[in-house]
Amino acid sequence: MRVGRPVKALPQPICNYCGAKAVLVRADEDAYPYREDHGPLWICAPCEAWIGIFARSTRHLPLGRLANAELREWKARLHAALEPMVEAKVRRDGCNTFEARSKGYKWLADKLEIDEKKCHIHLLDVDQCKAAIEIIESFERERRSGEPR
Ligand SMILES: [Zn+2]
Predict the structure, then answer these.
(1) Quick one: 66 exposed, middle or buried, by C-beta within 10 A (0-12, 13-18, 19+)?
(2) Sign of the torsion formed by the C-alpha atoms of 73, 40, 116 and 85
(3) What's the 137 CA to ligand 1 centre distance in angstroms?
(4) For the chain, which residues score pLDDT lower than 70?
(5) C-alpha distances in angstroms, 82 versus 64, 79, 105, 118, 119?
(6) d(Cα 111, Cα 131) in Å, to the nearest integer?
(7) How far is ligand 1, taken at its centre, from the CA of residue 7, in Å?
(8) Cα 51 to chain center, whole Å?
(9) How far is the CA of 79 from the centre of ligand 1 (A)?
(10) Ligand 1 centroid to 66 CA: how many Å?
(11) Do residues 17 and 66 touch, judged by C-beta distance below 8 A?
């Protein structure tokens, strides 16, 4: 007897703040938080928390945890701190952006003493974002102070 492949269940992200089930919204729907289309989002309206999905994910797989306004702000700051390092590495080592960024997160995971798989901008919480920014900034300070004048 042939058994069909089991159909993978669709993900049901849970809000990281209130524990409610997140709802998938698209750009043309009322609950959508942005004016522009950033692709479908898993959202918890009461918490004003949301997360995007992996591009081309047919199962609407969330990129990570739902983020509220505070966490979105810290994620933006972490991104702003990390990207110049990524660009510098691309220039220095001639690798591509994807590779440089993944090495950056690997380095951060080591410094934060967390699992490499859990060290991604969409998975970190506010405290981890703050710690990561601090690590990057102190690294940059040390690097600059070591430069010949
Ligand atoms: Zn919520």
Answers:
(1) buried
(2) negative
(3) 32
(4) 1-8, 148-149
(5) 18, 5, 9, 17, 13
(6) 9
(7) 28
(8) 9
(9) 24
(10) 8
(11) yes
d(CA 134, CA 108): 11
52: CA distance to ligand 1 center in Å? 15
Q: How far is the CA of 10 from the centre of ligand 1 (A)?
A: 20
45: CA distance to ligand 1 center in Å?
7
| DSSP result, 24-91 | EE-TTSTT---SS----EEEETTTTEEEEB-TT-TT--BSSS-B-HHHHHHHHHHHHHHHHHHHHHHH
The per-residue pLDDT for 1 is: 57
Residue 145 has a pLDDT of 87
Q: Which candidate, 107, 114, 142, places its Cα nearest to that of 128? A: 114
For residue 92, the model assigns a pLDDT of 94
For the chain, what are the domain ranges?
1-66, 69-145
Q: CB-side exposure of 137: number of CA atoms within 13 Å? A: 10
